[in-house]
Amino acid sequence: MSATGSDATAPERQDDTALRRAIGPKLLVLFVIGDILGTGIYATTGQVAGKVGGALWLPFVIGFVVAILTAASYVELVGKYPKAAGAALYTQKAFKVPFLTFIVAFMVMCSGLSSASAAARAFSGDYLAEFTDFFPPTLIAVLFILALAALNLRGVSESVKTNVVLTVVELTGLLIILTIGAWAVLSGDGEPSRLGEFQAEGTGFALMTSVLGATALGFFAFVGFEDSVNMAEETKDPVRTFPRAIFTGVVVTGTIYILVALVSSLLVDYRVLEDSSGPLLEVVKAGGLDFPPKLFALIALFAVTNSALINIMMASRLCYGMANERILPRALGRVLPRRRTPVVGIVFVSLLAIGLVSTGEIEGLGDTTAFLLLCVFAVVNIAVLVLRRDPVDHQHFRTPTVLPVLGALTSLILASPLSDRPANVYIRAGVLLAIGIGLWGLNKLVLRARGEG
C-alpha cells in the first residue's frame, strides 16, 4: 500500500463544511463495526444456511474477501475526496454522466432504506416474540422507524454515541455465541461433520450456484462499511482516519461472522436454522450453557436497532450530499440551524423506509440490499481505476491495482443470475430504479424551469 501526492496538509482540515466535525478515530472505528454488524448476522444466517447447508461458514469467507476488496477502493476514494455523497460523488468525478450518477446515488439510498426496513422487520419478528406478540408487526416496525428518525434529528453526536452503545451490546451477543461454541467444542458436543455438508445435490453447476446464492444473501451481513464514507464531512481528519477505521471494521466483523457461522452449523442443523427468523436464538437454546433466551433476544433487538439507526442516518447524509452536488433539489440539503442535522433529508428517507416496510420479508429485503450494493460496488471499483488520472495535491491511501479489478469482477458475479437470486428481488430493484429514473427526469425539468439546467 502506498501514498500519492506531496502536500501532507489535506483540505478537509479546513472548516469548510456546514456539518459539525464530531467523530474522532476511535468513534469512527466503533461506528464502522456497528455499521456492519447487526441485522445480517442476527436475522439472515438461517436463510444463508438454507441455501448452502452445513457449510455455512463458506459464504461468509467469500463475502469477507469481496468486502475487503471493495473496502480498499472506498478507502482510496474517500482519501482523495473527503466529502459526503460517497459512491455518487466518485461516479460523477469518474464518468461525468449525471444520469449514471443519479442512478448510483439512488441505488445506494434504496439499499440503505431496504436494509433499515429489513431491520425493522427483524425487530418486530421472532426476537420480539420472546416478550410479546400483542401488537401487529407492521405497526411496531413503523413506530420503530419514527423513533430512530427522532434520534437522528437530535444530532450526529447523539446518534453516533447511541451507535457506540448499541455496538457494544451487539458485540456482546456475538461473543456469547462464540463462548457457547467454545464450550460445546470443549464438552465434545456438536456435529463437526455438518461443516462440510452442502445443501445442493451433486456437484458442478448446482453446487456453484448454491454457494454463490448463499454468498450473495450472506453479503448483506457485510454491507455498511461503505456508509461510513458519507460521514467524511463530520469526521476529524478523514484522510488519515478512514483507512484504519474501515479495514479494522471489516477484518473484525469478518472474523466474528466466520466464527459465528461455524458455531451455528456445529450446534444446529441447517434446516432448523432455515425455519427460524431468529437463528442465533436457536444456537443459544442448543448450547450447553444455561443462558437465558430472553436476554439474548433483547441483545438481538438492540443489534437490529443499531443497523436501522445507521442506515437511516447514512441515507439522510446521502440526500444532503446529493443536494449539495445539485443532483437532488436544494431543499434536501437544508439543516436545522442549531442542531446542524439534515432535517429534510431525514424526514424524506424515513417516509420512504416506512413505505418499504410493507414490501417484503427480511430475506427479500436483505437480498435486495445486497444486490443493489453489489451493482454499486462494481461501479466504485471501476471508478477508482478511472480516477487514477485525477491526482490531488494531498497524500492519501492508494490500493494496489489488482484489488479493484478483482473487486469489480466478484461484485458483478454475485449480482448476476449465477447467484440463483429469486426473481422478486430483481423485480423490486427494477421498480426502485424506475422510480429513480422518474425522479431524475422530474428534477431535470424543475432545474430547466428555473433556468439552472
From TrEMBL:
<keyword id="KW-1133">Transmembrane helix</keyword>
<feature type="transmembrane region" description="Helical">
    <location>
        <begin position="134"/>
        <end position="153"/>
    </location>
</feature>
<feature type="transmembrane region" description="Helical">
    <location>
        <begin position="27"/>
        <end position="44"/>
    </location>
</feature>
<feature type="transmembrane region" description="Helical">
    <location>
        <begin position="399"/>
        <end position="419"/>
    </location>
</feature>
<dbReference type="GO" id="GO:0022857">
    <property type="term" value="F:transmembrane transporter activity"/>
</dbReference>
<feature type="transmembrane region" description="Helical">
    <location>
        <begin position="205"/>
        <end position="225"/>
    </location>
</feature>
<feature type="transmembrane region" description="Helical">
    <location>
        <begin position="370"/>
        <end position="387"/>
    </location>
</feature>
<dbReference type="Pfam" id="PF13520">
    <property type="entry name" value="AA_permease_2"/>
</dbReference>
<feature type="transmembrane region" description="Helical">
    <location>
        <begin position="425"/>
        <end position="442"/>
    </location>
</feature>
<dbReference type="InterPro" id="IPR002293">
    <property type="entry name" value="AA/rel_permease1"/>
</dbReference>
<dbReference type="GO" id="GO:0005886">
    <property type="term" value="C:plasma membrane"/>
</dbReference>
<dbReference type="InterPro" id="IPR050367">
    <property type="entry name" value="APC_superfamily"/>
</dbReference>
<feature type="transmembrane region" description="Helical">
    <location>
        <begin position="341"/>
        <end position="358"/>
    </location>
</feature>
<feature type="transmembrane region" description="Helical">
    <location>
        <begin position="56"/>
        <end position="78"/>
    </location>
</feature>
<feature type="transmembrane region" description="Helical">
    <location>
        <begin position="165"/>
        <end position="185"/>
    </location>
</feature>
<feature type="transmembrane region" description="Helical">
    <location>
        <begin position="246"/>
        <end position="268"/>
    </location>
</feature>
<keyword id="KW-1003">Cell membrane</keyword>
<feature type="transmembrane region" description="Helical">
    <location>
        <begin position="99"/>
        <end position="122"/>
    </location>
</feature>
<feature type="transmembrane region" description="Helical">
    <location>
        <begin position="295"/>
        <end position="320"/>
    </location>
</feature>
<keyword id="KW-0472">Membrane</keyword>
<keyword id="KW-0812">Transmembrane</keyword>
<protein>
    <submittedName>
        <fullName>Amino acid permease</fullName>
    </submittedName>
</protein>
